[in-house]
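User: Fold this, then the next.

Assistant: Folding the first:
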Amino acid sequence: MGLNLDEQKAVDRFRKNVVEPSMSKLVILDFWAEWCGPCKALAPVLEKVATEYAEKGVILAKVDVDEEKFIASQFQVQSIPTVYALFQGQPVADLTNARSESQLKQVLDQLLAQLPIEAGAGDASAAGPSQEDLEQFLALGEHALTEGDPQRAAGIFGQVVEMAPENAAAHAGLIRALVQSGNAEEAKAVLQAVEANPALAGDSAIEAAKSALELAASQVDDSELAALRDAARAAPDDMEKQLAFAEAAFAAGARDEAADTLLAMIEADREWNEGAARAKLLQIFEAIGLEDEWVVATRRRLSKILFG
């Protein structure tokens, strides 16, 4: 085909993530970029509709035009967002102008009525979404959390919970998203319902979400946080004040300050209060997720202190 190595890798990724699923599903293909404001405005609409239509055989695939320039050029993408519907590897509709939920659903309904889309084995409503579809939407929810949009993430995780009530990762994601969006009481209610379900209680993902909720209990208002910060700075050797500030800082979303404070405590006296600073930092890691880039980087900092 005359492609260089990078171009061939891009084609292989596109074939696996988009073309192969489109052989039996209707793929909404969204070309976007991190810097594109209209892309971010459209994303929640695409994600919501794709989640609702998952049982009908619709999935969402996103292509970052900065990372996949070759693929974008093959589709002759001139501006973003650009959105297509693909079936069996071929564009069957341009969805770019369908910016509202109702417009997008109208076009999808027309396509689904015309194309032999595979909604699942046997009765689609009984079979529900595939594991692949669920994992895709869970990834979208995690991406929204990473982008700092917990309300959007809560919407995605909430819809996955409706589709798959026994999916622990969806419940855990919903709890974490609610915590990050400031809805701690609603998060508590979800956790209570989950812990009453033997199929979900004790799952590692649920335990991580529980940690996030426990950490949120330390949340204070801006003036209280400023007072705790001042107190910690005025008494750098007072471990109690350092820990109090770190807990409040993380609950307020200032996780860099929280980590810096806890790491300094560990470096100064790792055995203080039976290793309370390290335990708190590990709880933060669990609450955020061990695969999170910030967590990975902070764990490296911790390892350097512990093992030199």
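Now the next one, as you asked:
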Amino acid sequence: MRSYLIRRLRVAVGVLLGFLSAVVELVLTLASGLWLLLTLGRSGAGRGESGVVARVARRWADGQRCRMARWYGSEIAPPTSGAPALAFVATRWPVGLLGGMVLVCALIGGGYASLLLWGWAAVDLSRWPMTMGVSGFGGMFLLFLAAQGVRAVALMDERLARHFLGPSARQRMQRRIGELAESRAGVVEAVHDERRRIERDLHDGVQQRLVALGMLLGRARRTPDAEKSAALLRQAHEESQQALVELREVAWRVYPAALDEGGLAAALRRCCARVWPGCWRTRGMR
């Protein structure tokens, strides 16, 4: 409850500062319009991204962005050019004035609501009992509506800033395309790394076993000694069994079947058991 009240008070302070800023913004808007009329027809004096009006609007919009970040807790991108900043300054002052009206209503409602605390001793109950009760409860209702209005004004203020100062639809699309291209490049690189690892495992493991198996079978076919041929065949059989084991190891590392059977935990336990036999049991990885 305390943190909720603190957040509400912070928002109210931000709306109050926005109301005070609205007066300056109204004057700045009128002065900007007059300046643009006076410089009409000149070689871009006061207009454009490097003009006086644009620079002042950008600085003021950046200050409003800092105010919202300080009191509303909203992160808004800084203005990238003077034209959106000038449009923001020219359209924000009505929202600021509305916030001031809401705060005045909150003060009035709070004053009438306080009658329920001290009015019993200050007002003649024999003459004004109904008036004091209606005024007190009406003030509480007005205070409640004003509290909701303060939050609504803060949301309007924030959305207006995001509309004018935030990235445009084209810029958001370009940023999204860049993020997708970066993630796609990462996926492609990961696939290439996995393919090279599989090729290395097959070349260094299974292929060597199959080459040794072929050499043993060739020697067994060429030798005239039956006992030596049987011994070579036994070695070839052992090599074939080992080749199957290594082939299963490669296939398991590509996609462990334990992922489908028992999930990630079971797959990790089997992986630990293969690399460090008995380690997961001794360390309590269950």
